[in-house]
Write a structure and sequence with these properties.
Layout (H helix, E strand, L loop, with lengths): L1 H37 L6 H6 L7 E4 L5 E5 L2 E6 L4 E18 L8 E17 L2 E8 L6 E10 L4 E9 L4 H4 L20 E10 L3 E8 L14 E13 L3 E13 L4 E2 L2 E2 L10 E2 L3 E17 L2 E14 L5 E13 L7 E2 L4 E2 L15 E15 L2 E18 L2 E15 L10 E13 L1
Antiparallel strand pairs: 1-2, 2-3, 3-4, 4-5, 4-24, 5-6, 6-7, 7-8, 8-9, 9-10, 10-11, 11-12, 12-16, 13-16, 14-15, 16-17, 17-18, 18-21, 19-20, 21-22, 22-23, 23-24
Length: about 450
């Protein structure tokens, strides 16, 4: 009798285990169907911000007329009949910074701030037509982020219209939520950022192309002023891409016709609460040209990437100037995770912990090192020449939660154009910590 009872108990345990596995498979399937309904690629900049790739989606209700599911920390709604989908998105970042100057007469201060508060939504009207709309409430005024609609002409070709990024750099294309550092490199100061325009993206078996035509940035627009325009293109080649290794190579260029606006290049030394110690000042210019090269290699949990760019500015009343930037960085996910790669936009996604903190795991841990250089001294311009060395440590307790610490050492001279903080030479260290929640 005891033997029979033991056998029955074993059978019940086996049935319960299989039932749990079936429920997990159902949850995974619901997640994949929800992501597919958006028309967004898993790991894309839009998708990774809300955490749709950061954990299994848990179905909450699924009536005949619609369904709601949790994608990471965000609720997601869908209509199976019309194949439409909607979900909230956003992020919240707070930061504290302290500095130490290596020059006796200079003090770079201490500060705290709400770095970003972004709120928005994304979704799809159909499998071929999706949208994103997001605003930034950080700082003194509301700013525009991605606000566009995208039409997918095929599985490999799409166009987007609205306010969005001009793709000219791996560093800039990677979401600020997914960077291994708190701030992008000095190289990012030569990127075009977001503005209203028409974008085109397509890809083949091992290559992809992003191009676009854009107007002036919304922050610079004034009533009654003739607006300039921008044309940008970025070509990427992926000679190797599998589950363990990725080789990424790219080249980008852009042309900017300035219209009636002045031109300026400025950069903080990779800490947002420092002053813009690199600064060319504002000067009238006719146009701006740029060429850049980029490379990245991922080997399991190690990611190496580097970029170099040169910008030529045709000033109206000053000599032509050439500005140069570049960086090299390495990031190691100590806990063994690996970033996903999006070929359509040529970028790496966020970190998804193999085991979440509080659920039997400790989350993911990442260590990163970066060296950046910038030279804004050319022609009649002395906007600063120098470098930074940054060390970053990131802990991802859960897919939507991140705690980070950065140390930045900077050395700059010939910053004569604007004389930030009253000096032309700067040398010091900044230490910052940040908390981040995305949904």
């Amino acid at each position: 009798m005891a033997v029979a009872e033991d056998s029955l108990a074993d059978i019940r345990a086996l049935v319960n285990a299989q039932e749990r596995q079936l429920n997990e498979l159902k949850a995974r399937l619901a997640r994949l169907e929800a992501v597919a309904a958006t028309g967004l690629k898993v790991g894309s900049k839009e998708d990774s911000k809300v955490g749709a790739v950061t954990g299994a989606t848990k179905p909450v209700v699924s009536p005949a007329s619609g369904a709601m599911a949790w994608a990471g920390a965000s609720p997601q709604f869908s209509q199976p009949e019309s194949e439409s989908q909607f979900k909230f998105r956003g992020k919240f970042q707070t930061e504290i910074m302290a500095t130490r100057s290596d020059i006796e007469t200079t003090d770079y201060g201490r500060a705290s701030e709400i770095r970003r508060v972004r709120l928005g939504a994304q979704g799809a009207f159909s499998p071929s037509l999706d949208y994103v709309a997001e605003l930034d409430f950080g700082g003194d005024k509301i700013g525009y982020e991605d606000i566009f609609v995208r039409y997918r002409m095929s599985d490999h070709t799409a166009i987007r219209l609205g306010h969005h990024e001009a793709s000219v750099s791996l560093d800039d294309e990677t979401s600020d939520s997914n960077h291994s550092f708190l701030e992008r490199s000095l190289h990012n100061s030569l990127s075009l950022g977001r503005s209203v325009g028409l974008g085109f993206e397509t890809q083949g078996q091992r290559w992809s192309l992003n191009a676009g035509l854009f107007g002036q940035s919304q922050l610079d627009t004034e009533v009654g002023e003739s607006e300039g325009w921008k044309a940008a293109t970025r070509l990427m080649w992926t000679p190797l891409h599998n589950s363990n290794h990725t080789w990424h190579l790219g080249a980008a260029s852009y042309y900017v016709s300035l219209g009636e606006e002045d031109y300026r290049v400025s950069a903080r030394p990779e800490s947002h609460q420092l002053a813009a110690l690199f600064d060319t000042g504002e000067h009238a210019a006719n146009d701006v040209k740029y060429v850049g090269l980029e490379a990245a290699f991922q080997h399991h949990s190690l990611l190496f990437q580097a970029e170099f760019g040169e910008q030529t500015v045709d000033y109206t009343q000053l000599d032509e100037s050439r500005f140069v930037t570049g960086y090299a960085q390495a990031a190691w996910l100590i806990s063994g995770e690996q970033r996903n790669y999006d070929r359509s936009r040529g970028k790496f996604g966020g970190v998804v912990p193999a085991t979440s903190w509080g659920e039997g795991g400790k989350g993911a841990l990442e260590l990163a090192l970066r060296s950046s250089h910038m030279d804004l001294v050319s022609g009649d311009i002395s906007g600063g020449k120098g470098s930074t060395l940054s060390v970053g440590l990131n802990w991802y307790p859960k897919s939507f939660l991140r705690l980070s610490a950065n140390w930045v050492h900077f050395e700059i001279d010939n910053s004569l154009e604007v004389l930030p903080q009253g000096y032309a030479t700067h040398k010091g260290n900044a230490f910052a910590v940040r908390s981040q929640v995305t949904w």
